[in-house]
């Protein structure tokens, strides 16, 4: 883990999963979706006057005993809790789930990790909401339903597990974390 942090800690194109280096080179449309969504979230956070922000780069290193370090497309942090973070003062690394309000992942070609593994990891961390933005409709039918189509999934932590609500094009997305957010999947789709 220390070697990964030294070599790739500031490189947004890599994360670590059980010691395996994952190249996350995003496409242009992927970045368009993530950028539009970050803008919408930033406006909603500002309008609600919440002490939250979206860091430009952030690594989630959840468990000291594992060799996993995640780099979500968007992370919303509670600035008032960052003084508890053991690494934050020296590097943009989050180790405590309580500092994270929301994680957003924009699905790329390896869709399985977003719907299964990351759902489990983020739930264990206690992150209140996790959004899966599958703008290309790549996920498995078991996660998306039939027919496969662009889907925005809001995962809300209830107890130790996420309750999942799916939204399609044209539908307004409801976020328990940001109830005043006015957002549809259509608003963040690439052109």
UniProtKB/TrEMBL annotation:
The molecule here is called: Putative restriction endonuclease domain-containing protein
Source species taxonomy? Bacteria, Bacillati, Cyanobacteriota, Cyanophyceae, Nostocales
PANTHER family linked = SLL0198 PROTEIN-RELATED, SLL0888 PROTEIN
CDD domains of this UniProt entry? DUF820-like
Q: Which residues form a coiled coil?
A: none
User: Where do the Putative restriction endonuclease domain residues begin and end?
Assistant: 2-185
């Amino acid at each position: 883990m220390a070697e990964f942090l030294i070599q790739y800690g500031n490189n947004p194109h890599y994360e670590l999963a059980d010691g395996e280096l994952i190249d996350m080179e995003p496409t242009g449309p992927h970045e368009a979706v993530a950028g539009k969504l970050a803008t919408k979230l930033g406006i909603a956070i500002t309008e609600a006057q919440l002490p939250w922000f979206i860091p430009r780069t952030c690594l989630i290193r959840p468990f000291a005993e594992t060799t996993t370090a995640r780099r979500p497309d968007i992370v919303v942090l509670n600035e008032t809790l960052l003084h508890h973070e053991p690494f934050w003062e020296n590097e943009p690394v989050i180790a405590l789930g309580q500092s994270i309000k929301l994680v957003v992942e924009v699905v790329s070609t390896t869709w399985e990790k977003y719907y299964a593994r990351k759902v489990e990891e983020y739930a264990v961390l206690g992150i209140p909401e996790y959004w899966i933005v599958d703008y290309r409709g790549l996920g498995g039918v078991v996660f998306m339903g039939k027919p496969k189509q662009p889907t925005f999934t809001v995962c809300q932590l209830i107890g130790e597990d996420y309750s999942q609500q799916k939204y399609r094009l044209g539908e307004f997305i409801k976020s328990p974390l940001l109830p005043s957010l006015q957002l549809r999947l259509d608003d963040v789709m690439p052109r």
